[in-house]
Structure formats: C-alpha cells, structure tokens
Amino acid sequence: MDLKGRTPPSYIAVEGPIGVGKTTLTKRLATTFNYQVLLEEAEQNPFLEKFYRNRQQAALATQLFFLFQRSQKIQDLRQADIFEPVRVADFLIEKDPLFARINLDREEFQLYEKVYQQLTIDSPRPDLVIYLQASTDVLLSRIESRGIAAEQVIERDYLERLNEVYSEFFLYYDGAPLLIVNASEIDLANSDADYSHLVDYLLDIRSGRHYFNPTFFG
C-alpha cells in the first residue's frame, strides 16, 4: 500500500465490542505498517467459556485474568527497548472496567477496582485509538459466522449492553486522538477497498475526534 510519504501513528489501539472485527483490523494494520502486534488472546483465558455459559458464576475470575493479562502486555510494552518496532494493539486498557461494571456485583467490582488501580497507573498513551462500531444484529451475525464454539451462547441482551457501555465510554473519551468507524457496512477482513479507504483516512489524523463512515465513499 502506498502511504504517500505519510507516517502512521506510532502506537495504535483498536477497540470495539466482541465480533466487530478489531483483531482482524489490528493484524492488517500490523502487516501494512510492519508493526509489532499486541493481542488480547482471549483463547488463553481458561475461564472464558464458563463465563459465556454462566456469567454470574465466572465473571470475577474471567475479568481478573484479562486484567492481569492486559496489564502484563502493557508492562512489557513500557519496558521494551526504545528501538523496538512501533505497535498496534487490539485492546485499550482503560476500557477494561466496562466489562467489570456490567458483569460483577458490587462487592466484586470494588475488589476489581482496587486491583485495576494498582496495575494500570502508567499505561502508555496511544497515538491513535480506533473505535469500531456495529449494530447488535451485525455483531450476532459475525459471531455466528466465525464459528467459535464458546461464543455461540452469547445472548443478544449482553451484546446490547456491551454496545451501550462502549458508546458511553467513547462519547467522553479524550485520552488520545480518536477515530470512530461505522463498521456495520464495511468489510475490513475481505475488502481491500474498504481497508485502503480507512488507512488513507487515519494517516492524516494527529489530534481530535474523527468519524469514518464508509457509505460516504459510494
């Protein structure tokens, strides 16, 4: 891809609810920019399948595992040599409490908050955050299509709540330049045209809040 002499943001974080395509986009960006990739690797969480089947019973263990995993990746990032390749991640550590708020009871959330505050004090600031949005119907369709067995029991109500808390979080987010992408009508996995339009757009972002709606490109 021709970047036309433009320099990509050095540290990009891609976010969005389950099924929206954040890991796919993260990997494509890493390939395009020759970046090191940081992934959540949800499949390593031994509590996740139990969580999808019984959220109340497994929520705290699932949440704490993810928190420790993500914070360790952030620590590794901070301690890496300054000459390491630039990076793109499929998570933003500041988003972690969103899941805790909707899945944990009051006492569990208080415990989670104490651990979170201890682990996330010096998280590096991304140079760009990409927030992928999609309707609940689209998320359900993509989850079904990718066929991960543990995810097939995810309920519509849960996805709707996730969409709501994500929208609220990014409505007020000002921790880094933000690109909000309408991903309902875009195929970043298989459409080179959609992907190229997005990359061309993000290369010019240096500050502020921006919106990418693929319907504008016809």
TrEMBL record:
Keywords: ATP-binding, Kinase, Nucleotide-binding, Transferase. It comes from the Bacteria. CDD domains: dNK. Residues 12-200 form the Deoxynucleoside kinase domain. The keyword Transcription regulation does not apply. Pfam families: dNK. InterPro entries: DCK/DGK, Deoxyribonucleoside_kinase, DNK_dom, P-loop_NTPase. The active site is at 90 (proton acceptor). Transmembrane segments: none annotated. The keyword Kinase applies. One of its GO terms (molecular function) is ATP binding. ATP binds at residues 16-24, 142-146. One of its GO terms (cellular component) is cytoplasm. This is Deoxynucleoside kinase.
